[in-house]
Amino acid sequence: MQNSQSELQPDPWQLYLPYDNKYQLKGCCFKTRPNWRDMKDRTIITNIQDRDLPDNTIKTCKYTFWTFLPLNLIEQFSKMANIYFLIIGYLETIALISITDGQPIIWFPLFIVIAISAVKDFFEDHKRQVSDIDENNRIALVLTNYGLIEKKWSQILVGDIIRVEQGEYFPADVIVIKTSEKGNCFIETKNLDGETNLKIKKQHKSLQFTRNLNDHNLYKEQILIHYDKPNPYLYKFNGTITMPPDHNLSDGDQSRDSIINYDAEHRKVYQLDEVNFILRGCSLRNTHWIYGLVVYTGFDTKIMLNSTKARPKSSTLESQMNFFIILVFFIQLVICLFSAQYSVFWQLNNFMDIPYLELDENDLQTNIVFRTMERWGTWLLIYTNFVPISLLVTLEMVKYLQGMMIEIDKECMTQNQKTEVQTSNLNEELGNVNYMFTDKTGTITKNLMEFKTISIFGKSYGMINNRSQILNNQELKNMPEVTNVDFKDKQLFNDLQQNDEHSRRIIEYFMHLTLCHTILVEYEQGKIKYNASSPDELALLMGAKFCGFEYVGLDDGMMIVKYKDQLIKYKLLQVLEFTSARKRMSVIVQDQNDKIILLCKGADSMIINLLDKQNIQNLELLQITEQHLEQYAEKGLRTLLLAQKELSQQQYDEWITKYLKAGLQTINRDELLLSLQDQIEKNLNLIGGTGIEDKLQDDVGITMQKILNSGIKIWVLTGDKLETAINISYACNLLNDSQQKIVISADDQFEAQFKINQGLDQMKSQFLNRTTALIISGDSLIHLDEKYHIKFIELAKQCHTVIACRVSPKQKQELVQLVKDNIYNIVTMAVGDGANDVNMITAANIGIGIKGVEGNQAARAADYSIGEFKILQQLLLYHGRECYRRNQVLVGYNFYKNLLIVLPHFWFSFYNGFSPLNLYDPWLYQFYNMFYTSLPIMIYAILDQQYTPKFLLQNPQLYQTTNKVNLLTFFFWFCSGAIQSAIVIYSVFPSMEQTSIDKEGRILFLSSVGMAVFCYAIIIVNLKIFVFSYMNSIGSVLFIFASIFLYLLTYLFLSKVSNKLDISHTFIHLFSNAQFYFILSGIIVLTIFFDLALARWSIFSEQELFEIQKIRDIQEPPPQSMMPPDRFENLFQEEDAYDDTSALLPIKPVKNRKYTGYAFAQQEKKLDEALRNAEN
């Protein structure tokens, strides 16, 4: 093992060299990395490279120059259709059964199909390869014995120290060694999660000595780093720094968040965590430069470990198509067996009448099985095109082009963003959706929070009933310029000026808002700009600023607040981060009088359990504040509670010692830290609450109503409280007064089961044939076992709308999976905008990601990414419906056109005793699918339009009127092909039997009949597109006749130039015969005109039914439109109206609600939780 140890001293780190971090690659021919769980934790020394670990090269492409051919061929022949035609080509080389003189002619169209797919794969992969090369060849500054030198990113190794300048991207995962800003630096994670807000990273305090070191001295420093094995958790990093003995930093120099321990050699060991760690792909902002120690490179970096391949998805139509292919193949085998047996037995029965065949009767009788199998093989080759060879590649190309049409559609674009199709093979699935699951915040709302109402020590502000209480325009002009605030209550400012006990409490309240957050401050042109990881936090801080309390920033550990032109400083001691499990965050600060205060904010359901229950004033204040929060929730606002407590120095010292020691543990570290956080956050004193408004996105109500009218059932899955979700649902037309509503909110298993049973009974009696909405809490879902999961689905199936409140990201995924597993033959679609929606999006049949405030994590994981919720109208009701309609016709048409060209052999065989005979020239036969009949149907599938987009959006009920693909529609196409093939052969054979002798006396009967049938089939198949097309442009008409002309041109060429082919000179003979044109006109009348009349009758019937439905809608108006969010007199029912029927949503506001929800939600660590949930 070779390491760069030129300047290594025998002491103190000789024990750790050579490194033992290497892992073994798995596999034989194609080496793969082991799973990260099978790796081991690492130990490295600064400036000593570990060359046994992979370098920093990354590779996202699937192929290389040498592996493209073998790997792509393996991929191509993983498709059953390609294997089928490969075998058929081999059978064509067997002289005993070959109909192509031993030539594998089918391999030519197979080669074309594979080549088209391979070219598509090559160009897609080439884009990734170019991107990889650009990434690997970027230049970074690496610290060496000769100072900083430029190296390619791909040459960076673990143990290197690199320098990153402002605006540059980090080439690897690094630990902060030193920075230009007193150990702090700011990074942007837009490349990772789409968030543009800055995040702060810090140099560990034990490394402060490096600030005064030049590059040469820094290179000489050798510090031992022990840290986690590579893992995909973006926001988790654990490690330790062990300092050499000559670094005698005093404990007093260490911050309280740097635990000191000692190893066996009595060397000081310090704890590292995620605040000291920067990911590859982040960019440096507002910091001139940073030096970082490389700890993970290449495929071991966290961003690469997170770039796993998405689960492949296929549409329902594709699954049905594969079933039809298998069905057709079995029908082919049966017909081949029938034809072979008929042929053998016919020859036995008519042996004396066919002496010219020179058959051996004994051989026929004794080897009847062998002869049957021989004929079966020949018939199999004749009927090869039962399975359409071009169907897969045609459908694939059509979907790709349909995806391009969606992307360039102006109606699918917002001001700054266009719709991106990332999985085009699901285009038609958009027209087949049965259930839509949607997040609320950021999906149907803008995730643009506005500071609206507050409750301060029992007094509510913002719920203005008197016009005189509203700030006028002049007063608003004198207020600080802020965003995210819609607060105009003059009473607050009057109370703040009273200089009494309540005014002091108001100051205390706003100090809490100004200090309890994780917002970073940067200055642009002398003005403060807040970078918040949560829009809720930004709204609260802006609200505090609007009321006169401005957060200035964090300077050397001091949080600075400006109030009445005075700067008030608080020392930041600890930040207890928000997680979706904790549903709260806390900070511990020390004021200028050395008083230590814990400030906590979060979900009211969590904060209530942490309050000091022995304090009577606390309980009285809680009762009043809960009433205020219910009022806020009835307005559709998101709510949270604020609480605090004072800590003595002894309490804090004892707790921080335990907390920092727990941070050093390698086993159960997170559990220990959470336990200690819960311990310090007890016995809090309530100070108030907040109400924040989350604005609805544009046209959400209209979009929801149209989706419901289209027959799609909508499930809203949100972390908000029940009341907030209900009010938002009214605002966006999901709920209305005419609906019956079932509410399931249970605190235990028995209550949850009782309410499920009660709801089922109500559906069978009171709510029968009435629209119903189901509202259920996440806690209730937790209490349901597998049996009651089935009952819950039975109840939910009967409801038009389901609203699940206070559900976690894992529960969102579980609900989608529950519906998929228990409701047969449905298509689910999930819509979300944040990292917490990724699991739900990937679990659904179709994932829609909205590029929103919460970043692009959901958009990247989705099959389709859109800019706004309203785009779903165009995407589903127009593109989805039309893609499904056109693609199901394309699939049926491909089977039809192949049956039309193949089955004439079967019908003709009744004339020749089923002797296996090919009617067509083998080369023209193989060109049939590839050149003569492929382009017109592609043009149809891309451009045809039954109704205009505007009409479809105005009449969403048409979404469900499209004929669905099933066995019946398949047999319609099958029978159509079979019948029309019989019409063709029985029109041609009797008519041309006496007219197939040319002027020179040559008999051209078989060749003429075969090519006449072939020509008629091509004409019928191409003209058939006119039958089911709703619009015909000049281009589509040209392609139809160009395909026919191409056939005639190749037929003429082969007939003229070759004397060896059976079709030699048949072209002139055929097309100079007037009877040929007479038969053609008769066939067109019997096939195309009949189909056209039938198609037009179907269109007329559909339009007639649609008009009838419109008349019914006029006679029976739809349910009452949305109720204003502030009118809820009839929403609830008196508690005594039903005895033990709390599952029904009451008509009057519920008093004494057992719980409420929350609004506060930071994005930090969401992806880690999503990954853990996925593992569980």
Concise description?
This protein has 1176 residues and is α+β, with helices and mostly antiparallel strands. The protein is 43% helix and 16% strand. The strands form six sheets. It has a nine-stranded mixed β-sheet, with helices on both faces. A nine-stranded antiparallel β-sheet has the order 18-17-27-26-25-24-23-22-21, sandwiched between helices. Strands 3-2-4-14-5-12 form a six-stranded antiparallel β-sheet.
Q: What is the topological layout?
A:
Layout: E1 42-45, H1 68-76, H2 80-92, H3 107-136, E2 139-144, E3 147-152, E4 161-165, E5 173-179, E6 184-188, H4 190-193, E7 198-202, H5 215-220, E8 224-227, E9 239-242, E10 260-262, E11 268-272, E12 277-278, E13 283-285, E14 289-296, H6 302-305, H7 316-349, H8 361-366, H9 368-382, H10 391-408, E15 420-421, E16 435-438, E17 445-456, E18 459-461, H11 473-477, H12 490-496, H13 501-515, E19 520-524, E20 527-531, H14 535-546, E21 549-555, E22 558-563, E23 566-576, E24 584-590, E25 596-602, H15 604-610, H16 616-634, E26 638-647, H17 649-662, H18 669-680, E27 685-696, H19 700-709, E28 713-717, H20 722-731, E29 740-744, H21 749-764, E30 772-777, H22 778-782, H23 786-797, E31 801-805, H24 809-822, E32 828-832, H25 838-843, E33 846-850, H26 857-861, E34 864-866, H27 871-908, H28 922-932, H29 935-943, H30 949-954, H31 967-992, H32 1005-1028, H33 1034-1057, H34 1066-1071, H35 1074-1115, H36 1166-1175
Parallel strand pairs: 16-28, 16-32, 28-31, 29-30, 30-31, 32-33, 33-34
Antiparallel strand pairs: 1-8, 2-3, 2-4, 4-14, 5-12, 5-14, 6-7, 6-13, 8-9, 9-11, 10-11, 15-34, 17-18, 17-27, 19-20, 21-22, 22-23, 23-24, 24-25, 25-26, 26-27
Domain P-type ATPase N-terminal: 52-100
Active site: 439 (4-aspartylphosphate intermediate)
Family: Belongs to the cation transport ATPase (P-type) (TC 3.A.3) family. Type IV subfamily.
